[in-house]
Amino acid sequence: MKSRLYMSAGLMQKKTILKDVYCEAPYRIMQPFYEKDWMEAVLMSSSAGIFGGDNFESHFEIGEGAKVCMKSQSYEKVFQRKEQSAVKCIKIEAARDAAGIYLPYPVIPFAKSRYECSTEIYLHDRCTFLYGDIFNCGRVGMEERFKMDWFCSRTKIYHAGRLVFADHTYIKPEQWNYDRMGLWHGYTHNGMLYIHFPDKQREDGFLKWFRDLKTELVSDTPPLYWGSTRCLSGIGIRVLGMEGDAIYQAFEKIAEKVKEILLADG
Length: 266
Hints:
By secondary structure, the chain is mainly beta. It has helices at 200-213, 244-265, and strands spanning 2-12, 15-23, 27-29, 33-35, 38-45, 50-51, 55-62, 67-72, 76-79, 86-94, 99-102, 107-109, 114-123, 128-135, 150-159, 162-171, 189-196, 225-230, 235-241. The chain has two helices and 19 strands.
């Protein structure tokens, strides 16, 4: 199955609205709702998951001054079929003074599945943006840890046409034992965040908050192992954990902090 999705958001009378939406089955955008001046857009699917051989393309545009938080309905299962890959291609554009959060739930790769995702993000220097990507090792409750054929997620982020951040998560269990020392050392889930602020003052304030409180981002869950760095432009965060939910909930708290920083300076 091949399907496409397009969403454009813009500012009208100081309110973010959906300007244009195009969806092909099984995907659609739920009627947006609002949290203060942020528009929340949820990507929904009527399918049981994504199958080998499926190809899904999505394109999101955030216009000047608009504030959009994009999430998915739930975890998305990746099923194996005839040794084919399930393929996703995602493109996101954010204009001047726009603010965007793209934080979908992780996919769950079933045994023998093959998954490839390519994401390209184009940001204006004066926008604020958060992007998250989480690797889930499989159906843990069914004892399917690292049982996929492969999992591949590539991310490229550009500012003013210049590549400033790239990430490539490639998991192929038949070649590597990810439990051993020097690789994941017993951890089963891997999260990546990229955050861009339009000025160094807000970036410095966020980094101070994060490095002071990162051990308190998640409570009553298995521990998370965090790291952060300044990129050529923006901030990169990496985390290892034992539960996809724990990482996702921590990412949500970080997203709320980004909104708080924008509100304080707004």
